């Protein structure tokens, strides 16, 4: 017998998991404006790079063009993720944002590796740069990068995908400051080596951010157990509920960053059959309040007819004594 419901769903729609209020209340127009101003920045840096003879500015223009496209991916992914569930996608399209995050972070990793290559190369093959034009372009880039980051800041707290785009622009802002410092060093001190040195520091930071966020996105896509969830404690707590004799075929995964799902076979004694609804309610309440799991599927079995699970998950069966 299977008991499957959502205690917080007052509409009676059993698959109506929603986005967080914080994310859904932010206008998509912010992403569109971020895309537009980053393309404007790209054009400005290309012009400045051509007239100054600066390969660094042209490389940064390519970087910002990539960022603009990454923001466009973020916008498209957000729109897709809001599509309603249907017969083919019963959980909806919420993971489209995670796919967008993986694309963004992969591009960010490529940029970081490319910057390392460029930084090392420029130590041995320094390029001639018109310092004042380089400085002017970096100031423009800094203003636009900070403006884009402000547009995305509120959205970044509720979405790994938008957070990846947000980090893109924070990295860009740091990079613009680095270029500005490098321009000052070239203009006033003639220290051409400062530019590749700052590039290496910036690329290391980019790769660190990828290292921090990409595994999380991949873990959710692979339906891994939430990293901060102690599954042994969860089993112990559910098993402590009166009348629960056995727990097996257990799976815990994340639908997206805001929603976790749980399924398990719960074994009770036949004499407790009249208490099934109460047992189910206690389990669901514990899952929601103690472990943040708001989507659970419980299949109840009687101890004299319980299946001998041969599942592939870690916890196949656990017996409890009350």
Please specify the SSE layout and strand pairing.
Blueprint: E1 2-5, H1 21-24, H2 29-52, H3 55-81, H4 96-124, H5 131-156, H6 160-189, H7 194-221, H8 231-239, E2 246-254, E3 260-268, H9 276-291, E4 295-302, E5 317-319
Parallel strand pairs: 3-4
Antiparallel strand pairs: 1-4, 2-3, 2-5
Helix pairs in contact: 2-3, 2-5, 3-4, 3-6, 4-6, 4-7, 5-6, 6-7
Integer count of domains:
2
How many individual helices? 9
Q: Tell me the structural class.
A: alpha+beta
Helix content: 55-70%
* Gyration radius from CA atoms, angstroms: 26 Å
Helix-strand string: EHHHHHHHHEEHEE
Relative strand content:
5-15%
| Morphology | elongated
Look up the CATH topology of the largest domain. Alpha-lytic protease prodomain-like
In words, what does this structure look like?
With 322 residues, this protein is an alpha+beta fold. It folds into two domains: 24-221, Alpha-lytic protease prodomain-like, CATH 1.20.1510.10; 231-319, Cation efflux protein, cytoplasmic domain (Alpha-Beta Plaits, 2-Layer Sandwich), CATH 3.30.70.1350. Helices cover 60% and strands 10% of the residues. The chain has nine helices and five strands; from the N terminus they run βααααααααββαββ. It has helices at 21-24, 29-52, 55-81, 96-124, 131-156, 160-189, 194-221, 231-239, 276-291; strands at 2-5, 246-254, 260-268, 295-302, 317-319. Strands 1-4-3-2-5 form a five-stranded mixed sheet, with helices on one face. Strand 3 (260-268), helix 9 (276-291) and strand 4 form a beta-alpha-beta unit. Helix 2 (29-52) runs antiparallel to helix 3. The longest helix is centred in the middle third of the chain and has 30 residues, at 160-189. The model is unreliable at 3-26 (pLDDT under 50).
